[in-house]
Design goal:
alpha+beta, Lysozyme-like, SH3 type barrels, 4-stranded antiparallel beta sheet, globular, binds zinc ion
Length: 347
Amino acid sequence: MKTQGQFTLFETLDEFAQFIQKPVQRQIKLIQNHHTAEPSYNDFNGQNHFQQLKGMKSFHVNERKFSDIAQNLTTFPDGTIAICRPMDQNPAGIKGANTGAICIEHVGNFDNGKDKMTAAQRECIIRMNALLARRFKLKLDTNAFVYHHWYDLDSGTRKNGAGNTKTCPGTNFFGGNTVAACQASFLPLIQAAVAALDGTAPAPAPVAVPTPGTVSIPIAVVATQGAALSIRRGPDANADKLGELADGSVVHIHEANGIWRRIDPVAQKWVSSKYLAPAPQAVSIPIAVVSTQGGALSIRRGPDANADKLGELADGSIVHIHEANGIWRRIDPVEQKWVSGKFLAPR
Ligand SMILES: [Zn+2]
């Protein structure tokens, strides 16, 4: 958890879950999910959370003449959550629907053809909505979970997409910005996450151990003449240092940004390509899809059901398989993160 001025950034959902247990001095009746459109993924470098929050506040206060930043909560592409306008205050999120609302702004532009939501942010959005639904005893329907697009900007009347509207939270937000898309593609994910929190999720049906299809991921070798190579939270030498790789380590490259290369399929983990050499030959990494019929798949520290649980993957998540051990599959190129192959299907 980090704080700057009024903003607190939670780096885990557990921190957020604890925070929302605090008493709130108003009745919460609905949750607004928005996208920021601007800033978008292009503006986020993995470490400028507070700069973005201050920028949004400045725009809302100075240009829009709001009393404070509009939203109560903000999510980022790396799956972190910030507290913005105090939870005790109504937001300035949707004309006509602010009383008793919690306004969440998701950094990104989720219109068709714009930003492709990261797995980390997707997971964060589903689970934070589930935590809020439980905390404030909200029904999982489109009266309690609302999109900006459903409200006429001029009158503040709900017209479900008719009238003068924004596309917010984006024409590609969890399958679309319509009431039907919310019901078909967003609320069921929240419902599954609530069930997982309640411990009532149905046990996933076992599926056959897969024979995954393969895609090529570029591969490289750390070449530092014996020194350690820093892993950073963003494509920037000044970004937080998350760890080190030994000379000779093998990495898989999932994204490039200038001289920087992202070595994790999901997390913001970057290394400088100045210290990478091409691998002797490109290899294929098997790819698979989490298939749990809506349940969550546990990530464990070792190839063992009793190993420490490190986190969860949502049904439908894409994983790359770096090692096999019995029915277990290692899904991280560097770290000991294992899932049961029983709940993986070929993509
Ligand atoms: Zn909006």
